Amino acid sequence: MTTTTASEKTTATRTTPRQVVAALWLFVSLFYIYCDVVGLMYPPHLKEYLSGNLNGLVIDQLFLLSAVILMTIPIGSVLISRVAPGRFARWESIVAGAVMAAVQVGTFSLGSSATLAYTYCSIIEVAGTVAITWVAARHWKPEV
Q1: Which end of the chain is less enclosed by CB atoms within 10 A, N or C?
Q2: Which residues span the domain enclosing 82?
């Protein structure tokens, strides 16, 4: 019969910075998606989306492709932070977290028609991506 010491149990259940970063990427990715879905429920914005012009922003094929490419960053980062070699995954999360935080802050310069829901989601998304950058940079030790 094998016995397990208290320190072994603690070590076995400790969450690593890599796991925290992966969980945060999943969290912010879901928030990005949910915020966009909820945004379609606001009738004035839905009318603008359907007209192809949201507050002066043309919703065309290039815009949609750009949006999908941009969202590849956080969605891909969920996978990269879990399976890529540690050094690459760490640096990808640092850079991608900083980029996504900057992009989200930058969306407020596109116009003044942000809803309360969008503002709330943006605060959560920026906090999440800043946390990713912080954990990856300060707590995720580079693997040799």
Answers
A1: N
A2: 22-138
